[in-house]
Each structure stands twice: as C-alpha cells, then as structure tokens.
Amino acid sequence: SWTGDFGGNGEWKFDTDATASGGTGPTGPQDAGGTYMYYEASSASGSASAVSPVIDLSAIAAGNEAELSFYMHAFGGDMGILRVGASSSPTGPFTNLITWGGSYQTASADSWYQIGADVSAYVGGDLYIEFNNTYGGGFQGDVSIDTMEVTVCDLIPSCNFPSDLVASEISDS
C-alpha cells in the first residue's frame, strides 16, 4: 500500500536479504524473517519518495502524544540525504521531521539504528509518512528502513519523550 517511486534503480525497493550492491546496505532485515525497504542507489540520480499508507489517529483525543519510530541502516561511501516528513495528506506538503546525511553504520553487518520523532501534531486525524532520499553520487548509498510504527501515549499529562540527550565518556570498551 506504499506509494511513490518504487521498483528500479534510483527508487525504493522491498527486500528480505542483503541489497544487490556490494559495500552498502544491510546484510538483511532488522527483524529476522521480515521485509525491509531500501533506496537502490545504483545508476541513480535525483531523489525518490516512498509514502506510507494512512495511519489513522482520528480516534485519539487531542492533547495526547504520538511518536513515529523506525529502524535505519545507512552504510556506504555514497550515502545521500534522507528526509523523513509527515503530512495529513498522501500528496503533502510534508513537514520535515528528520534529515540524515552520510553513513551511520561502518559495515553491512552492523546493527540497525532506531530513530524516533514526535508526530503529536497529527493526533486526531490522518498521518502519512514520507521517506525521501536524494542520490549521494554513487552506487554505495543504499539507505534502508525497517519496522516503522507509530505509538500513541493516551495517558495525559505526557509520554515525556527524551530530549537534549548527551553522550560522554565514550571509549572503545
């Protein structure tokens, strides 16, 4: 039920195994046995969008909070720019929630990274999520998305989403 740019090089694809290009992408889905979505950077140019089916938040009372979460795998020397947006319409305009450029993982076998974003503004209506990837200049830019979900916290006063996180005392061990 996803819409957008799907199927070929420079577009989004669904897979159950490693991406076709070497030196980029994950070795398989985040959730074993599942399917994930990835941007195929081979012979690409420009950008490609993937828009989710409707996420119905109309039964959630105003004042409650909602969080989008998904897993990302971004390994390769030619990563482009991934933008994640939200809208109440499948055709947008999409409000930018997240912008990511460059590699996050250092190898195909590295673990997927979980990302979250506040989508509370869409509580009480429809929500569509857009993943838009801009080509990074080469075939080693297969950014991958898996296990997307929206969680609603219907207990007021709030879910208390983490913010202003800081990492310190980082070492190899």
Descriptive labels:
173 residues, mainly beta, six-stranded antiparallel beta sheet, five-stranded antiparallel beta sheet, 11 strands, 38% strand
Task: Give your account of this protein's structure.
The mean pLDDT is 90. The protein has strands at 3-4, 12-15, 36-39, 47-51, 55-56, 65-73, 81-87, 95-101, 113-118, 126-134, 144-153. By secondary structure, the chain is mainly β.
Order of helix and strand elements from N to C terminus: EEEEEEEEEEE
Sequence stretches where pLDDT stays below 50 over 5 or more residues: none
For the biggest sheet, the summary is: 6 strands, antiparallel
Q: Which outline best applies?
A: globular
User: Helical content, roughly?
Assistant: under 10%
Number of helices in the DSSP assignment = 0
What value does the Rg take, in angstroms?
A: 17 Å
Counting DSSP E segments of at least 2 residues, the number of strands comes to 11
User: Distance between termini?
Assistant: 44 Å
How much strand?
35-45%
Mean pLDDT: 90
Instruction: Provide the structure class.
Output: mainly beta
Which SSEs are present, and which pair or pack?
Layout lengths: L2 E2 L7 E4 L20 E4 L7 E5 L3 E2 L8 E9 L7 E7 L7 E7 L11 E6 L7 E9 L9 E10 L20
